[in-house]
């Protein structure tokens, strides 16, 4: 059995400098113009939308559940509300994965 480790990241933009991206098609999309982007650092990138956000309780601690759809592939994140507060319903999310 191969023991592979992966790094997973969430981002709200693909711009390497952190500036907001366009929600519409843009000919300056990172990767098309050769402009540096987060896609250059990862092997797999998916675009998704947050469709549900709710409070949850686990072991006496307050948690939140964030549901994200990547075109039918669904993700559930459960965690500390302070770390997941930037994820809001209808916000865009990029999931980035690379082997380390």
TrEMBL record:
The keyword Nucleotide-binding belongs to this UniProt entry's keyword annotation: no
Coiled coil ranges: none
Keyword entries, A-Z: Nucleus
Domain of life: Eukaryota
Chief location of this protein within or outside the cell: nucleus
Entry keyword Coiled coil: no
Gene3D superfamilies from the UniProt entry: Nucleic acid-binding proteins
SMART domains: RPOL8c
Pfam families associated with the record: RNA_pol_Rpb8
Location in or out of the cell: Nucleus
Family: Belongs to the eukaryotic RPB8 RNA polymerase subunit family.
Protein name: RNA polymerase subunit
Protein species of origin: Dunaliella salina
